[in-house]
Structure formats: structure tokens, C-alpha cells
Amino acid sequence: MKARVKWLDNMSFVGESGSGHSVVMDGPPELGGRNLGVRPMEMLLLGLGGCASFDVVLILQKSKQQVTDCEVDIEAERADKEPKVFTRIHLHFIVKGHDLSAEKVERAIRLSAEKYCSASIMLGKTAEVSHDFELRAAD
């Protein structure tokens, strides 16, 4: 896997993935940025959410669950001093579908967190990572 980050100007950067996609990252105005994109540490949380959600949906589909939507709200805390690593991360999954099994959703989240989601496992080396979920009926 490869990626590339190129400085644009001020504190703006463009990240290019090996799969050919790009994303703009920028800093806050008080640090010379223009608020044109997500912060790099926010990208880590987005990556974590994407990785975990991918796993959860895939596991649920393989478990014959009728998932129609999956969202994850993520809250994180960082250390006060440099390096300002994440110290606590909580993922709250909102899974929608038809006749979903709470046990199967809980199992999918656990498997993602403990076995499949590389981002969660890596971030868990410095942060306390927790999860919960709620089920909602499909519209």
C-alpha cells in the first residue's frame, strides 16, 4: 500500500491514495491554515470509522442480516502534551435494517475491534477504544 502527501501552500496539503483518490487536509487559521479541509488527526478518526464500519457491514451481510444503513459517531480525547496522541476513542454505531439481531450486531462490532480492523487495533495501543450501538428499524 502506498500513499503520497503533497504540500499545496500555507498549511494545506493534498493526500493521494495508492488507489487514485485525493483528499485535502488543512490546518486551522491560528496555525496558518485556511480551513480548506479536514485536519490530519481527524483523518485518522475517519479512517478508523471507515475501517470499522466496513467490517461491521460485511460481517452482518455474511450473517444474513438485512442491513439498510450503518453510521458510526466517533468521539475522541487527546493527550494535553506533545505528542498529542489519542487517549480515548468511543465509537457509537447506529445500525438500521429489517429484523436485526442485537447479538449479531454486537458480535460484528467485537470481531471488527478485536480481529479485523487494523486501524482500531493500532490506535488501541495508545488509546482506550470503546464501542456501543443502537438498532433502528429500516424506514
Descriptive report:
With 139 residues, this protein is α+β, with helices and mostly antiparallel strands. It folds into two domains: 1-38, N-terminal domain of TfIIb (Single Sheet); 40-137, GMP Synthetase, Chain A, domain 3 (2-Layer Sandwich), CATH 3.30.300.20. Helix content is 32%, strand content 39%. The chain is built from three helices and six strands; from the N terminus they run E-E-E-H-E-E-H-H-E. A three-stranded antiparallel β-sheet has the order 1-2-3, with no helix packed on it. A three-stranded mixed β-sheet has the order 4-5-6, covered by helices on one side. Helix 1 (40-62) packs across helix 2 (102-116). The termini are far apart. The model has no long low-confidence stretch (mean pLDDT 97).
> Briefly, what CATH class of the largest domain?
Alpha Beta
Query: How is the biggest beta sheet arranged?
Result: 3 strands, antiparallel
The shape, in one word, is: elongated
Going across the biggest sheet, name each strand in turn. 1-2-3
Number of strands: 6
The amount of helix comes to 25-40%
Write out the CATH superfamily name of the largest domain.
K homology (KH) domain
SS strand fraction: 35-45%
Chain oligomer state: single chain
| SSE-based structural type | alpha+beta
Uncertain runs with pLDDT below 50, 5 residues or more?
Answer: none
CATH topology of the largest domain: GMP Synthetase, Chain A, domain 3
In whole angstroms, the N-to-C terminal distance is 38 Å
